[in-house]
Design brief:
The chain is mostly beta strands. The chain contains three helices and 28 strands. It folds into three domains: 1-125; 149-269; 318-441, no CATH class.
Length: 441
């Protein structure tokens, strides 16, 4: 948007300035130009007014204003645009302005004002610097440099009102709250080549939406994004940390307890085949859950996403917090939605074309008992292994199992994989009442 806005301004101002400087009898004077509409490549401006004052030393005072500017990427137009520069050099091949003043109204964001400088040459070189900018109740600054199709934007902001800064992303009836800060760099080096890096911070971030399915309160957040576009493929890395507050995404409620919740992901988006490839993703809740793996996903323009490959290299559950936070909300309405749990679980597995191809799990002192007294498992230890087309062995030992009034003593299970399923590899003797139950197969 900034690049397009700068190009529009320079097109209007530069054309008028070059015309005026080639008129031999201008001398000291004032030129005013009013245009109902100006249309360019992807942009459109209404009620444009340009004022240019020149003296014999090529010193100029100029201003550009427009009541409405439609820019690509914005659903609503920019309004009340005003650019003003006083006492600066205006030549046939360049424009130098070190006293630029900017004011405009951006939809959702509101009033934006800034001071800075603008340097432009007829050959296409542009340097725009904005300082002491005010927007969304906070401050910002930026530098835009470009020539011959290569552009670089560096911007910073602090103490921005999230309600205004994020209004375009709130959706119908949604609302943000809190304060934001950011550092952003975008570089374009010709068709099909770009770089992006950003650091975002949020304090007391909140969000509500009418359906009540998503909500956040008092979030403290830091995020880093790095990306690049190479031959039409976007490669990116994301790092995100939530260090306080409450985040609700139906049916889960996440609340950092001591250590931050952390997310990392790196991968590529391949638009030619609509493929999302995550070489690595990682989620860590130090008190409950850690997940690390990779994903290859096909996202058709119509229809549901298709998992081509999912590999979970590490899944670690720490009970009871993992059950209360991550499992129980998804089990509401089932017999497993009200358990007392304990122990730990580690696992890894793979899905190929949506089907399980490998599973390994290790459990340690797993406890799970229904609070209504219907069933319980006590002291489950061991490992479980399965692989498509393989012949794996598993071993589990349990201190006891109960189902209503039926309770067992300790016993073990030896399991072997056959024909894609699991079977007993040895007879099992289960202590029950004053005797035992023998199971051969």
């Amino acid at each position: 948007m900034i690049r397009t806005l700068a190009s529009w301004t320079l097109a209007v101002l530069g054309g008028l300035a070059l015309w005026a400087l080639h008129v031999p009898a201008v001398g000291d004077g004032r030129i005013e130009l009013a245009l109902d509409e100006v249309v360019g490549d992807g942009w459109r401006a209404e009620a444009v007014q340009v004022v240019l004052e020149l003296d014999d030393h090529s010193q100029a005072k100029w201003s550009v204003s427009a009541s409405r500017v439609d820019l690509p990427g914005l659903a609503e137009p920019v309004r009340d645009l005003h650019l003003k520069c006083t006492g600066q050099g205006l030549h046939s091949d360049r424009l130098d302005c070190s006293g630029l003043q900017l004011a405009l109204v951006i939809p959702g964001l509101g009033s934006v004002v800034a001071q800075g400088s603008l340097h432009w040459t007829r050959g296409g070189s542009t340097v725009l610097v904005l300082r002491q900018g005010r927007a969304a109740g906070g401050r910002f600054g930026l530098e835009l440099r470009g020539s011959a199709g290569a552009w670089e934007l560096v911007a910073r902001g602090r103490d921005l009102d999230a309600a205004r800064a994020l209004a375009p992303f709130a959706g119908k009836g949604g609302e943000f709250a809190g304060r934001l800060g950011f550092r952003l760099r975008v570089a374009l080096a010709g068709p099909g080549s770009a770089e992006l890096s950003a650091h975002l911070t949020a304090a007391d971030l909140g969000f509500t939406e009418p359906a009540g399915l998503h909500e956040a309160q008092g979030l403290g957040m830091e995020a880093d994004i790095e990306g690049r576009l190479v031959q039409g493929v976007w490669e990116a890395t994301l790092r995100l940390g939530l260090n306080r507050g409450v985040f609700y995404w139906d049916p889960w409620i996440l609340e950092p307890a001591g250590d931050p919740l952390r997310v990392e992901a790196s991968g590529a988006w391949r638009p030619a085949r609509r493929g999302l490839e995550l070489d690595r993703f990682w989620y860590r809740d130090a008190q409950a859950l850690e997940v690390q793996g990779s994903l290859r996903l096909h996202l058709p323009q119509r229809g549901t996403p298709q998992i081509e490959r999912l590999a979970i290299d590490r899944l670690q559950l720490r009970l009871p917090r993992a059950y209360e936070t991550y499992l129980r909300p998804a089990l509401i309405g089932t017999m497993l939605d009200d358990l007392e749990t304990g122990g730990r679980v580690q696992a890894r597995f793979q899905l190929q074309q949506g089907k399980l191809s490998m599973l390994e799990a290790v459990v340690g002192d797993l406890q799970a008992s229904d609070r209504m007294g219907r069933f319980a498992v006590q002291g489950l230890d061991g490992h479980l292994a399965w692989a498509r087309g393989g012949r794996r062995r598993s071993r589990l030992a349990v201190e006891g199992v109960s189902f209503y009034r039926l309770a067992t003593g300790a016993f073990g299970l030896d399991l072997v994989q056959r024909d894609g399923g699991l079977e007993l590899g040895a007879p099992v003797q289960i202590p029950v009442f004053d005797g035992r139950l023998d199971i051969q197969r």
